[in-house]
Amino acid sequence: xxxxxxxxxxxxxxxGTPPRVHQGTLALxxxxxxxxxxxIQEGQAWARLEGxxxxxxxxxxxxxxxxxxxxxxxxxxxxxxxPVVVAFRVVIVATEEEGEALPDELEPYVCGSAVRPLQVxxxxxxxxxxxxxxxxxxxxxxxxxxAGIAREALSPFASLQGKVRRHEAxx
Length: 171
Prior knowledge:
5-stranded mixed β-sheet
């Protein structure tokens, strides 16, 4: 099976009629903002990107991304694969002001020069990740600890608690 690679950049003629489609894989560790979040430096994202022009002549990029992102569970500190399946549609704009002028139902993607598929895919994956990475249900087995017991034993008032009650009973 041949692995398709996405191009480094999409040129203006990649947005037209009929829509131009690119699909392929990107290595997750090559994404500079995502790489530090990975539990292990492996994995790939499959993406399908479709560049077109909308009715108003604006460059539009639609796509679908699928990936299993290796994350560290914040409860048990084990590695798990968070499934990401995202469909998106953005309008390519050159400046923030141009993006603010779009109707509310359109999502702007600010890109001064050529659209870089790696950055678009990385941003969509980051938006799809949970705030706190955690296994689901029975897959998570947090380590046992005795932190609560140790805290009571270290309390300077723990030994006084029994004396106060005994003193109140004597009165």
